[in-house]
Automatic annotation (TrEMBL):
UniProt KW keywords: Amino-acid biosynthesis, Aminotransferase, Histidine biosynthesis, Pyridoxal phosphate, Transferase
Source taxonomy: Bacteria, Bacillati, Bacillota, Negativicutes, Selenomonadales
Subunit structure, interactors included: Homodimer.
Name the UniProt record assigns to this protein: Histidinol-phosphate aminotransferase
Top-level taxon of origin: Bacteria
Organism: Sporomusa malonica
Its EC number(s): 2.6.1.9
């Protein structure tokens, strides 16, 4: 008789509420489509693409453009069907039965799922009450578990808070685990741990095109890692894992990434405006964010979510998640969308 693989019974199907919100601030996407000049170039390049051919098997063309942007070589780059695929592959390649993977909590909920899919032991380490990280506590947990991987999300989703790069270097320098820094929100923050790649052999950096670069529809992300690590993870990725349309699109967007500067500046000023305005509302606490979303804690999260949804504003309710009691994550949208949030909250 056939049965699901052991371990799968503990996994719930990943479900997010699929509602067509008029104002969609629930998934940390870019709030508008690509800058028009970028979209025009993407379409021009797609028009020239031979749809009958398999993609470039090792995605070498995109890897090379990305590697050049970081002063690395193509052998240091992996391309995934979203950075999700690469993070999962990394757990498959360096995790496995009997291995432990350490990550702070609360953080990206998918980490626990990748760890379980890889048959590994999840070792979540609680963040401090203000969502800062206690590096020594994390290192102790990693040492005790002889962890094969430490996953860090910087800036952190869903809290929006950061781990100072010096603290990440301290962790990398004081562990034998592979430290993976998920920099999905890097472009909103500006600081990175990429420089550690030149100094340490136990570090890798994951990035995505889904957030600041507005390509959530295309599903593409990448990993920067020492050559041997990239090669090992490459063994668990299927050939042609990323389709040719996506590869061509990401290549255009990466080459034109300067075109996103104005939106990043607007995100930053809108985020500060929203932080100040929401902090002034009694009963609300806003955590300092270096991303395109705000984590807001409310005395009455259910009422806050209801006020927003009544006005067609979709946000992500984390109020029943561990370590996030009363918290709702609200994306920073366009100025008009943000005004609608303020109206809903203060009405
Ligand atoms: C959105 C997100 C990702 C990745 O998204 P992909 O669309 O799979 O590239 C990875 N990590 C975090 C923390 C995210 O929020």
């Amino acid at each position: 008789m056939f049965m699901p693989r052991s371990g799968l019974e503990t996994l719930k199907p990943y479900s997010v509420e699929e509602v067509d919100w008029p104002i969609k601030l629930d998934a940390n996407e870019r709030s508008t489509d690509l800058p028009p000049a970028v979209k025009a170039k993407v379409i021009e390049n797609l028009r020239a693409l031979p749809f009958n051919r398999y993609p470039d098997i090792s995605a070498l063309s995109l890897k090379t453009v990305i590697a050049d942007g970081f002063g690395l070589t193509a052998a240091n780059v992996l391309i995934g069907n979203g950075s999700s695929e690469i993070l999962e592959a990394l757990c498959f390649a360096f995790g496995g039965a009997g291995r432990s993977i350490v990550y702070p909590t609360p953080s990206f909920s998918m980490y626990g799922i990748y760890v379980k899919l890889a048959d590994s032991q999840p070792v979540p380490v609680e963040l401090n009450a203000d969502y800062t990280l206690d590096a020594d506590k994390l290192l102790t947990a990693a040492n005790q578990a002889a962890a094969s991987i430490i996953l860090l999300c910087n800036p952190n989703n869903p809290t929006g808070t950061i781990i100072p790069p010096e603290q990440i270097e301290y962790i990398v320098a004081n562990t034998k685990s592979l430290v993976v820094v998920d920099e999905a929100y890097h472009e909103f923050y500006g600081k990175s741990s990429v420089d550690l790649l030149g100094k340490y052999t136990n570090v890798a950096i994951a990035r995505t095109f889904s957030k600041a670069y507005g390509l959530a529809a295309a599903r593409v992300g990448y990993l920067l890692a020492p050559e041997e690590i990239a090669q090992t993870i490459g063994k668990v990725l299927l050939p042609y894992n990323v389709n040719a349309l996506t590869l061509a699109t990401a290549k255009t967007v990466f080459a034109m990434r300067q075109e996103f500067a104005a939106s990043l500046a607007e995100n930053s000023s809108e985020r500060e405006r929203m932080t100040a305005a929401l902090s002034a509302v009694s009963g609300l606490t806003v955590y300092p964010s270096q991303t395109n979303f705000l984590l807001v804690k409310s005395d009455n999260a259910a009422a806050l979510a209801a006020r927003l949804s009544a006005r067609g504003i979709g946000v992500r309710d984390f109020s029943t998640a561990p370590g996030l009691a009363g918290c709702i994550r609200i994306g920073v949208g366009t100025p008009a969308e943000n005004n609608a949030v303020l109206e809903a909250v203060t009405a």
